[in-house]
Amino acid sequence: MSYETSVWDQPDFSNLSRKQQNVEIFKAVSGFILSVGSQISDSRCHFEDLLRRLENVENDLSMFGEGGGGGLTGLEELITDQGNGHQTDFKEQGLATPTSGKVGGGRFEFPPLGNGGNSMGGGGGDSNQPQGWLFSPRSNSPVEYMGEPDTNAITRAKKEYPKVIINVGGMKHEVMWRMLEKRPLTRLGMLSKARTHAEILNLCDAYSLQENEYYFDRDPATFNCVLNFYRTDRLHIIDEVCILDFADDLEFWMIKELNLEICCLDKFNSRREHIMQEIEKERMNMGGDDEVVEDFGDGYFAPYQKALWDLFEKPQSSLCAKLISLLSIGLVLVSTVGMCLNTFDWMQAKDIHGNPVDNPKLALVEAICISYFTIEYLLRLAGAPKKMEFIKGTMNVVDSMAIAPYYLTLFFMPQPEMGPIPEGPFNGEPAATNPPPEEEGSFGDVGRIMQVFRIARIMRIFKLARRSVGLQSIAHTVKTSWKDLGLLFLLVGMGMLVFGSLEYYIENEEEDTGFTSIPQGMWWAVQTLTSLGYGDFAPTTFLGKIIGSCCGVCGVLVMALPIPIVVDNFADYYSEQKKLEAKELKREAQAKQAEFDLQAKDAAEAALLQTLASKPGAFTSPPMSPPDGRGRLAQNGSVENKF
Length: 643
Known about the structure:
Layout (H helix, E strand, L loop, with lengths): L1 H4 L5 H5 L2 H50 L3 H13 L50 E2 L15 H10 L2 E6 L2 E6 H4 L6 H7 L3 H7 L2 E3 L4 E4 L6 H10 L10 H10 L9 H30 L10 H12 L5 H23 L7 E2 L5 E2 L2 H24 L3 H5 L2 H19 L24 H19 L13 H12 L1 H26 L10 H12 L12 H19 L2 H52 L29
Helix pairs in contact: 12-13, 12-14, 13-14, 14-16, 16-17, 18-22, 19-20, 19-21
């Protein structure tokens, strides 16, 4: 400090400029400040070291206070000797020789935890540290209760062993405690901070301080991914594990799914959503099977009603039911083909007035088919467990609409007058026998109404949907995709209005144009949007052709966007229906096998009883099992042809 204080006492200092004087003063003051700062830093380090030593001494005092005997006196002598820079031999008191003050901050070494009764301190008293494993109550392990280790023993064990053994389902991993402390909110991070017996058993299933091992009763397949998360701060997933199982493991180890890396996060979410959707579909299918309960009651006709219902509603229940189903499908096809053939001129007959009427032979085929459909509907109604639900069913409404037009035509339409056509007075032409004007007026309106009902006969083709999984899938697709189809119709309607109106205002002044109104333009637009193009009229101006080109391109986009969604819905429902059919076939096969086994058992018991009844008394030879009908199947070949 002599140099710094004598700087401004020198004679040359007053001759210096003000700036040079400030520089000299700064040099003197900065040196003083740096020396004071270094002294403060040394004092702080020394104070921290004293606090650390004090904490160690307090822990040792509390531990030796529980160890009994002369441990406390020996510790005081140890502290005194360490303060004087000497070492004291504690072998007579059962303590290990302390380390020098330069190593470990003045702390001394205790005997290892596995050294019997002296593991908890000196004085020669009995140790209260439990020997062996300590199990969590949820592990249900049949072991006798041992003393719980105190906080000091747990703290001392973690300080003595910087590494820990993590046993997950029998697979051991050695990791550092400080690595687990990086994630304090996870299960392993909380385990590294746990200092009591209850906290440790709340986090793991069992632990042993002697072996420095903590056990978790979990599947070790995914623990490598969890452990790598602590090592590299990156959480990945392997393809071999189940996504739901991995999600459960992440929840157990208290690791958030958001910690997954971007390369695995999308894969994890997409696979889990797909699995959850499949589980939900399976639950819905199983729930739907459970909800359908056919209660026929316990009346006298209940068995016959059930047999009638199975005969017409469950083609897989028996051979007769399958034949009836095929017969119904065949008659639907025959009646539809007959209805189409009846529209040919060469197939139609003529009444006495020369008007075309239905062919009598095809009309007979129609009557036979309608009679069968009527009988089938009435029998199904008689066998239905719930009549009103049967009548309100969608497919049953379709059946009634396919049958009703024939009877309405039969009862309300006048029958054609068949016979030879009378010849006219000239050249053998047929005479004109027109009905009176009154009759023509009275039956004209009724005839047009009946014609509508005759057209409704095409509804019978939808009866095929009862037996066809594909048609049922189409109906279900339309039902579930109504939002997508509604969007498609909305886009088509908007395109019709926009492009039809533009074409009308552009082309209406041209000669021989077809765009005479906006509805005509909309008719042209819907043909262009759907890529149909009848070609009955087209734009002729340059601007009109540009608008037409834009309409065609927009039609491709409009039709292409919603269609994949509809196709996916159809494919999903079709695959689900096929699975249900396979399950039904498997269930029926199992039922038949169970019935066959029961019959075989009854036959075996009957044969055994017959054998016992025919030959009473003791057996001269051990009895053989009676034939049960299946012994031939177990042979290596048939009776006539052995291998």
